[in-house]
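Please go through the protein record below and see whether the fold suits the sequence. Record follows.
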Amino acid sequence: MPRAKRVAVVGVGQTTFERRKIETSAEIANEACRKALAHAGLGIDDVDCVVYGSGPDAFDGIHVLGENVIDAVGARGKPYMRCTMGGATGMATPIVAYWHVASGRFKTVLVVCEEKMSPCVPHAQGVFLANYDEIFHRPIGTNVVRMCSLEMTRYMHESGASKEAIAMVAVKNKGNAMDNPYAQLPARITVDDVMNSEVLTWPVNRYDISPTTDGAAAAVLCTEEIARRLTDKTVLFDGVGWCMDSVYWETRGITAKGYLERSSRQACEMAGVRNPMKEIDVAEIYDPFTYKECHHAEGLGLAAPGEGWRLAPDGVSFRDGALPINPSGGLLGVGNPISAGGMMKFNEIALQLREEAGGRQVKKRRLRTAMGQAWGGLFQFSAVVILRRYD
């Protein structure tokens, strides 16, 4: 049986993340693609295949959204695939693109994720209501914010975390975003600012949640052989993992981390990582809410069970800490255009390993291994990528 091809990341690009961008979905996707290709030193004619990711069509308010951007992303006349897995799309789409190269079928693949959520009517939260079970969940008006308020409450109860400790995640991530030129909500804030911000659904305050955002992000993947001709900064996929659990939280526990653990374990086993806390140099993990960074860190093996909330207050997850998490500013600071938010995180770990992250670069040590993760579906899907620099 032939061995899988090694797959490299040779270029990344993104738009600014904003609310109510004037550009269309196709225009922002095109901008991200052009930037990624320029970073790689390639043109669209060098691309064999295009993989596009977005959330549900209703988020952009455009039916058959994948077809809407075919010309904009350079996919006319090329093999083209769309990936959609809710919030996990931003990390699942690079995994799908990875398969295209690893299989040996294609040598160069352009991968792009895009979301333009702010003009949509009804708001995305209204769309989410239609995702839930029509008998058990819809009658109580469940949406993402209400669901996450329940999960945050349970997480605090189980772990002993205080709201003040969890608020440090917002302080860290919004502060990190001050160094990110693409960020929507960078800010120097305090724990008191988080605690005193508007309560949306207790215990979720406004500063505990990422904003509605428009934006796009893209990357160029290719074989290792091509990458070594293009750059002396060789960043390769070392591990990928994904897992989906039941959509019914009543059957698995609202704070269950099994799907997180399995996705991380799969990626780590593939990459030969035995202890993520010790072997991962930097991580970009999904933080649509402050407590989710804590919860995800535990499920991914970056913190001990029940201890994820300690990382920010103890300084561990700060940019100059022992295990920097979301040095980009994360979704809380940069913005959350669903699929593009996760794709941004994929791009950021590649930039960190290439030492090209600008003011958000982790400088404490030479980075070799990075983890990216996105979360979505109905709170039960996780996709994980481990990249490593080889040179």
The longest helix spans residues 25-40. DSSP finds 14 helices and eleven strands in the chain. The longest strand covers residues 214-223. The mean pLDDT is 94.
